[in-house]
Amino acid sequence: MGVPLDTREEQLDEIVDRLYDEYPDATISLNFSNRLELLIAVMLSAQCTDERVNKETEHLFEKYESVEDYANADVDELAEDLNSITYYNNKAKWIHSACGTIIEEHDGEVPDTMSELTDLTGVGRKTANVVLQHGHDVVEGIVVDTHVQRLSRRLGLTEEKTPQKIESDLMTFVPEEDWQWLTHLFISHGRATCTARNPDCGDCILEDICPSSKLDNDIDLASGEAWD
Length: 228
What we know:
CATH class of the largest domain: Mainly Alpha
CATH superfamily of the largest domain: Hypothetical protein, domain 2
C-alpha cells in the first residue's frame, strides 16, 4: 500500500518493531578494540564504506598502536598508509592533529564529552556520537549517517535535509532508549534492502507503510525526485 501511519510516533513504533524483528543483532560494523581505534575508524569511515575501513585498519592498527604513534607520525607516511581510503590525505592530517590535541589537552585519552570530541580536528557530531555510544557508553544523540538520513526521510519520519537538523528533529519524538538502536536498524536495512539507488521495495518489510514505496508512489522522499 505504501501508506504511512497517522502520526510520526505511530510510524516510528511500527518501523522499529519490524526492523528489530528483522535485524535483532544489528550493531556497529567497524572493527576496533579500544577507544582510540574506534575514533580512528569512525574518522576514516566518512564517505567510505565500513568494509573498506576494516580492511585498511587491519594493518593500520598494527603499525600505530598509541595516540603518540599517530601524533608523531610523518603525515605523508600516514597518508600513504591510508591510500585506499577516500580523502586519505585530509584524513591523515585530521588524525595527526586530533591525536596531538588528545595528548596536549586530554592526557592521551579519547575525551568523553560531545564538546571535547567535536573540538578535535576532523570530528563532527556524527563521529562524536559514535565514539560516545560505543567507546564510553554515553548516548547523547542519534548518529545520522547516509543510511539514517535517507531512511528517515524516505519513511516519512522527517522532512529535514541536513544530518544535524534531522538528528534534532528525530530527537523530539524518538524515545531516548531507541536513539542508538534506530541508527543500527536503519543502517542494517539501508544496506540490505532500502539502498540509495535501487531499493528492493517488493521485498521490503516496511513497504506497506512507506510513503516512498516505488510500488505505490511516484516520489522518493529521500531525494524529493521522481523514481526512475
